[in-house]
Design brief:
single chain, alpha+beta, seven-stranded mixed sheet, six-stranded mixed sheet, 17% helix
Amino acid sequence: MPQHSRVTRRLGLKTALAAAVAVPLSSTALSGPSASAEESRSANGHLEVMSFNLRFASTTEPNSWTVRRPVMRELLRREGLHLIGTQEGLYQQLRDIESDLGAHYDWIGTGRAGGSRDEFMAIFYDTRRLAPLEYDHFWLSDTPNVIGSNTWGGGSIRMVTWVRFRDLADGGREFYFLNTHLDNASQNARARAAALTVQRIAGLDPALPLLVTGDFNVAAHKNPVYDTMLSAGLVDTWDTAAERSPLYATFHGYKPLTPDGDRIDWILATPGVTTHRASINTFAANGQFPSDHLPVQASLTLG
């Protein structure tokens, strides 16, 4: 069930409230801080959204987290983002990003194996612009309320984290934000995950705008998973954008970028959302990329 209780700052695990409920690791109260439209980082009022597979923190050179972190910090700070749906982040890595983003950012998430274990589908947000009202997680399996469940033959545990936000700069408008990472090994697991996600979306308030970010591990327009996600009544912000950056494959594996390549990282939205600009961010510093994926971004108006 959705979580409404206070989430406090912590360094370690918080005991699960119940066997079927995942407890997020975050550092904010769900009521959120007070803010006003004047405090918004975006002068034009657009909601700046990113989906970013962070590449989990490792010590393997030449792309260790120690090397990548300063580049990640510079990228995230320069973009003035309000929402970041992240994939693959490990707990301490997410704490590093929280510190690097600064005092006005917070995050919600839980490890896919429960608590602080394994990778997170963490959602970072600018507290001056957004206040979380409720959140929940579900696992991409036959038992979606069982923490860490994986029943479709996928190579890894997979899950969705979602939050209902209030936009403090848009008259208090509420919207949903879902973030996920589909399996890299099994098309069956991806297909069933997409179907379950669509089913869960159908159970949310249809009157509210909805955004979905994720690494879907299949190319847009080239796989039934993409069609399934759009069958939920969603649109691809890359396709609906009034303006777009050059297209590159969003996974590069620290190799030369591929122009006009496959987008496996997407930002989807309900049709009433206006996409002013969609972009694939190629930022690097001295040849060092912050991740083996390129982040995708969208500048949006919710309605």
